[in-house]
Structures are given as C-alpha cells and as structure tokens.
Amino acid sequence: MFTRRTFGKLFSGFAVASPAIVRALPLRKVIVVGAGAAGLTAAYHLKKQGVDVRVLEASNLWGGRVKRLFGFSNVPLDLGAEWIHDDPTVLGHILSKGDNDLGVETIPYDPQTFRFWHDGALNKADMLRHAYEELKFRDTTWFGFFERFVFPDILGDIQLGAEVTAIGRASDGVSVRTRDGSVLEADRVLITVPISMLRNGAIAFHDRLDASRLDDLANIPFGGGFKVFLKFKERFYPDILLEGSRWQVLNGETWDSKIYYDAALRKPTEDNLLGLFTVAAGDLAPARLSDEAMVQSILEELSGIFGGVVRQSLERAVVQNWSQEPFIQGSYSMSDESDQTHRDILAPIDGRVFFAGEILGGDARATVHGAAFWAIDAVEAMKAA
User: Fold this and answer.
1) Disulfide-capable partner of 202 in 82, 164, 197, 274 (CB 3.0 to 4.6 Å)?
2) What is the pLDDT of residue 337?
C-alpha cells in the first residue's frame, strides 16, 4: 500500500523485527474470523502446529484487501495491496522460514520520471528518483503469494459466506454465531476483520465478554479508498503523477492521498498500464460514485492534463472500490496514535478473544507483512493464554 510511511522510509531507518518461529500450541481448536492476510497467516501457523482451525470469511472470496486482477493485461495486477514495502526476506518470515525470499521474483519499483500537477501546470520533480525505490512482485501478486504458499495448507478449513455476528463464552472457550444462525465453539477466537467492521458494531459480544474498549476505535481513522487501472494504446504519462505543489510533494503530503503511477514499470509486459490509488482519512467523495462515473471523472481529469490522447488511447478500465466493499468499507488504518494505543484497545478479551490485522503492524502498519507478523504474534499469545 502506498502511504506516507512509505515516503518517510526514504529518510529514516526502517526495520521490522522478524517474528519468532511459532512453537507447539496447547490448543485444540481456534476459529479465525476473516480470511485476509492476517487471518490466512494465523491459520497457516496454527494448522502447522496441528491445531483444528476454522476460518470464517463473510464474503464469497478469500484474501480480504489482497485481491488479484487477471485478464486485464498479460501480467496479473494487485487490486489491493501491491508493494512489498520491505526486503523480499519478509516473505520468508511470514512463513517463519527465516531470511528466505522463497524464490519469488521481485523487481525494483524505481520511478525515473515524476510530475506534479498544480495550478494548471505540469511540473517536473525528477529529483525524487534519487530518493524513492520500493519492491514489487515481478509476475505475481500478493494474492498469488498466499495462493502458492499459504492457501494449500488451509484450503479445507476456510468457510466462505460465513458472516460472524456475535461472539460469547462457551464453557472454557468461545461460541461464534454466524448470520445464518449457525453456532460454532472453540478454545479461542482470533478476529482479523478490518477495524471498520469493529467500529460499526458488526460483531456483538455477549456473556460477560467486556469489549467496551473497542469503542475507542471510533477515534482511529480508517481511510476510504479505491484503485483504478487504465490500459492505453500508447504511453503519454510519467512514471509518477502527483497533485499538489512542489512543497507538498517534497514533504510527502500527496503520497498518502492520490497517486497515478505506471503499473507496468519493470514488469514483463508491453502493455501501457496506468494505475490510480486514492485514499483519505475522512470521507472520500469519489468513492461514492458508480464505477462508470468514476472512470469518466478520471478521464476528464487526465484529459485536462494531457489532452485528447487520453480518451483516444483508452482501451479498458477497471475499478476496485474498497469503500463500497460491504465487509471492508475502506482501505486501511490511518492513525496518528501510538502503536501501544492500538495494542491496548485490541488487547485480548478474557483470554479467549484475540485480534490481529494491519493496524497492529507497528512500524509496518498498513502493510501486508505487518498484518501477517502480528497474526504470528497473536498465535503465540493464544498459546500462552
């Protein structure tokens, strides 16, 4: 995910502690709520330890905010999380295999041409090429990573279309109720849904499970957001296009709000692919548009910058509106609170209910590997409870 944290990485040390290898767990059964990066990672490690795991996913697709687009180009594209945001060895650490990149091919995402649009003028900011570089997958996606390395181990343990509505006590464990009235019991439950779902009370807590501190999540912004990919017959755009003044660009103020970027850069394709990622801590008005209206609005904006070539060259467009996904309703946490604050709010409840997700990723908050690392920590915590 493209965030201001990414830009700050250029000028300060950035390291994520590798999680400890998961040891044998004194658990019999765990229910994981949510099949995103955190939920899949937790289930993988629990299953490796011989724990009976059931992953309940409200939607009809696994992956959460990790989603893949096939057929738009001859390379798959990330409709959700896209950048790796760290060294490739984080891939090995997600699986507790140490400093191992698993043989997954990555590419440097090192844009060379930067432009910013301000007061009707298109200005250069190519100096940024000396400061910014990230990593992306070469010919796969974050979805493909989980599909290859994680999903096969837990395929039979994921239940799609299982919306959890309530959690309560059950003898020494927990009971979990789904929308269709089914009730499942386990020793522990790990909740990995986006904080947007917890903030709006999508899951109720009963039987003296005090979840009142979750009310404090209302003070933590959860960004609205969407991604759009546009395929053109010719390339007329720079590697990176930002809105705002030079001062805003150099201070990173535009990097976590709206960015056009060459989505094909360094990938094995001749396609001209322009990506747009937009996120905001508050209400994001364009996210309320239909997909068609959003594309037309984008084409109008780009035409105002580059002229008639935009509409003349357009071949296809696809929208992934995360704000309108019913079980996600946005992009990721955009909090200025300390990491300890998040951990205090989402601390285990009664030694039975645990939490994991990107908001608990510490220095890697709002990233896939941050969500995965905290899921591993949550597995350790469940073992010790």
Assistant:
1) 197
2) 79
169 to 179, 187, 302, 330: CA distances (angstroms): 18, 10, 55, 30
Which residues of the chain form beta strands (DSSP E)?
A: 29-33, 52-57, 68-69, 77-78, 106-109, 114-118, 121-124, 134-137, 158-160, 164-170, 173-178, 183-186, 188-191, 204-205, 224-232, 240-243, 258-262, 272-280, 314-321, 353-355
Amino acid present at 63: G
Low-confidence ranges of the chain (pLDDT < 50): 1-25
Confidence at residue 316, expressed as pLDDT on a 0 to 100 scale: 98
Query: What is the structure's pLDDT at 356?
Result: 98
Question: DSSP letter at 18?
Answer: P
- Write the CATH number of the domain with boundaries 105-135+223-324: 3.90.660.10
Residues 330 and 288: beta-carbon distance below 8 Å: no
* Predicted TM-score of the model (pTM): 0.91
Domain map (residue ranges) of the chain = 1-98+140-221+332-385, 105-135+223-324
Please give the backbone phi and psi of residue 243, each rounded to the nearest 5 degrees, phi first.
-95, 140
Q: Which is nearest to 202 in space by CA: 326, 356, 322?
A: 326
Read off the amino acid at residue 349. Answer: I
Looking at domain 1-98+140-221+332-385, its CATH superfamily turns out to be FAD/NAD(P)-binding domain (3.50.50.60)
Whole-angstrom distance, CA of residue 306 vs CA of residue 184 = 56
What token pair was written down for 332? 């990721």
Cite the DSSP H helix spans in 161-259.
Answer: 195-199, 246-250
- 156: which 2 tokens? 């039979």
SS3 164: strand
pLDDT at residue number 20? 44
Q: Are 222 and 287 in contact (CB under 8 A)?
A: no
